[in-house]
TrEMBL record:
GO terms for biological process: pyrimidine nucleotide metabolic process. Pfam families: dCMP_cyt_deam_1. The keyword Transport does not apply. NCBIfam families: ComEB. InterPro entries: APOBEC/CMP_deaminase_Zn-bd (IPR016192), CMP_dCMP_dom (IPR002125), Competence_ComEB (IPR013404), Cytidine_deaminase-like (IPR016193), dCMP_deaminase (IPR016473), dCMP_deaminase-rel (IPR015517), Deoxycytidylate_deaminase_dom (IPR035105). This is ComE operon protein 2. It comes from Enterococcus canintestini. One of its GO terms (molecular function) is dCMP deaminase activity. Zn(2+) binds at residues 72, 100, 103.
Length: 161
């Protein structure tokens, strides 16, 4: 019998989508999941520095058309590893939007060699070049609804009863 379970790429990308729902910046909701050896080691979403106000409460802090208050989801995931002392070498990242140049540089420098993304988003040509240059890969993931059919409030109720 073939494995009927949700494939890893669908599972980890869905985690990134869930994280994006926690974003506190309304300009773009992004989630990122760091994975190593099929284990989630960290997750992040774009939001303020802990202790600062949230964009959703006080509005974005926009300079040169960017919200400068938020830390990007990928950075937050990496920083969680820095804070907790978790190695990111050879880890993979699942992110809802193609990483910006700064995040791409940070991810590569932190040892991440596989970037899975859900949406193309202003894909930076130099970021793409860098990914190729260091022998990393960026691969688009399409979420397949068939794997999520079991998810419904009905079955969630069964789980919580
Ligand atoms: Zn903002
Ligand atoms: Zn970024």
């Amino acid at each position: 019998m073939t494995d009927q379970r949700i494939p890893w790429d669908q599972y980890f990308m869905a985690q990134a989508v869930l994280l994006a729902l926690r974003s506190t910046c309304t300009r773009l909701e992004v989630g990122a999941t760091l994975v190593k050896d099929k284990r989630i080691i960290a997750g992040g979403y774009n939001g303020s520095v802990s202790g600062d106000v949230h964009c959703i409460d006080d509005g974005c802090y926009v300079v040169d058309n960017h919200c400068i208050r938020t830390i990007h989801a990928e950075m937050n995931a990496l920083l969680q590893c820095a804070k907790l002392g978790i190695s990111t070498d050879q880890a993979e990242v699942y992110v809802t939007h193609f990483p910006c140049l700064q995040c791409t540089k940070a991810l590569l420098q932190a040892g991440i060699r596989k970037i899975y993304y859900l949406h193309d988003y202003r894909n930076d040509p130099y970021a793409v070049e860098l990914i190729n240059q260091v022998g990393a890969t960026a691969q688009k993931v399409v979420l397949e609804p068939e794997y999520f059919q079991k998810l419904s409030f009905g079955s969630l109720n069964e789980l919580t009863e």
